[in-house]
Design a protein that fits this description.
single chain; 404 residues; 11 helices; alpha/beta; 19 strands; globular; 10-stranded mixed sheet
Length: 404
């Protein structure tokens, strides 16, 4: 998914046996030892805990009954190497910020999965030498956070790299073997036909390695989709691809199929409303699909103005909605009825007004971490860029840091 995607219960205690290492027992700060069911991992929406104006996970849990969060994204370091980072910049080994978010979620009876990859950035499958070293890098993440679930978000530009995809699929298989009970999802691009050529090559790679995750999920957006009917048609077509690739019958294919949507306005100007989400949810549950998630909770709130001036935002949906409306569909997929009354919310600190950075210039060269202001928002460069307008594409070189 796009800088995009499941979760656990009041905390986690599971034996994680990494190859060549001593088995570790993971637990959260509250000392609880019960993981959530796989249905919750399958229902977890994506949350960027460090970027795109992260919402308060505790407030979302109070308002919706959500327990599972898919934290995004783990990448290779921006400067290269085979060690896991958050977003290419924050080393997992020294992280305390994401750990704090996880502790908050677990203390309230929830848990997290971690998503690796996403759209853009450099992936560990590209920089690590082979599947074993790629798996070793991801094992660091599993061990540090005591994970019961992980998501491989394989899309551009990585899924066009045969060697990188071989490393990622091989790593997923190793992690699945070395961490009994680990919930593994694989997410990739969706097309009207189900998935494109590179997605099909990824499935063939999984078949050749004898790897079967809990599900293969497609993202039916940014490909000329028009509402839920186009999305359910793509899911039907993807089911046929799974059948023909793995020799599964229809029911088995649906049991290994997932949906990963985008709430509100997509990068290419498609719109997906609450009604669209309900239609796809009905399709997913009636066909006994394994996963229903979306990108993202950072966007699960109304823009001001509602249409966000005709642009796609990383911090709001560009459709009329109540806060966390789309999260409630994930709660329903998990088999829980969202609360109808408004609970006493977890207090959210009043944001401090942010001053605007130096104005963006079309002629200036910017590198990762540089900050500018444009259109009354501050923006941070994700990588080297010149003459690329901030906000022109959510998945471009600029990360929206909010109004200023």
């Amino acid at each position: 998914m796009r800088p995009l995607r499941a979760c656990l219960g009041a905390a986690a205690a599971v034996t994680l046996a990494a190859a060549g290492t001593t088995a570790l027992v993971a637990s959260n700060a509250s000392g609880a030892t019960t993981a959530l069911s796989n249905r919750w991992y399958a229902a977890a929406p994506y949350l960027m805990p460090l970027d795109n104006n992260p919402p308060d996970a505790a407030a979302i849990m109070d308002a919706t009954g959500l327990k599972a969060f898919q934290l995004a994204f783990v990448l290779a370091p921006n400067g290269g190497g085979c060690s896991p980072t958050w977003g290419g910049t924050s080393a997992v080994s020294s992280d305390t910020a994401v750990q704090s978010v996880i502790n908050t979620i677990r203390a309230k009876g929830g848990d997290v999965s971690v998503s690796i990859g996403g759209y853009g950035g450099t992936k560990l499958g590209q920089t690590c030498a082979d599947a074993a070293s790629t798996a070793a890098a991801y094992q660091q993440v599993i061990t540090k956070y005591g994970l019961h679930a992980i998501d491989f978000d394989l899309e551009e530009p990585e899924y066009e790299n045969t060697a990188a995809i071989r490393n990622e699929i091989g790593a997923a298989k190793i992690l699945q073997q070395n961490n009994p009970g680990l919930y593994v999802s694989v997410t990739t691009a969706g097309t009207a036909d189900g998935t494109g050529w590179f997605g099909k090559q990824m499935l063939l790679e999984a078949k050749s390695q004898g790897f079967t995750p809990n599900n293969f999920s497609i993202m039916p957006f940014d490909g000329g989709f028009s509402g839920a009917a186009a999305q359910t048609s793509a899911l039907t077509n993807f089911n046929s691809i799974l059948q023909s690739t793995f020799g599964w019958d229809q029911a088995t294919a649906y049991a290994h199929e997932g949906f990963s949507g985008m709430n509100g306005r997509s990068d290419t100007g498609e719109y997906f409303t609450q009604a669209d989400f309900q239609t796809v949810l009905d399709y997913a549950t009636s066909h006994n699909m394994d996963r229903f998630t979306f990108w993202s909770l950072n966007r699960d709130r109304q823009c001001t103005p509602v249409d966000n001036n005709g642009t796609t935002s990383g911090t709001c949906s560009s459709v009329a909605q109540g806060a966390w409306d789309f999260a409630k569909y994930s709660v329903k997929f998990a088999g829980v009825t969202p609360p109808t009354s408004t609970p006493t919310p977890t207090p959210t600190p009043t944001p401090t007004p942010t001053s605007c950075k130096t104005a963006w210039s079309a002629t200036a060269v910017y590198t990762a971490g540089n900050e500018v202001s444009y259109n009354s928002h501050n923006w941070k460069a994700k990588w080297w860029t010149q003459n690329e307008v901030p906000g022109a594409s959510q998945w471009g070189p600029w990360e929206d840091e909010g109004a200023c």
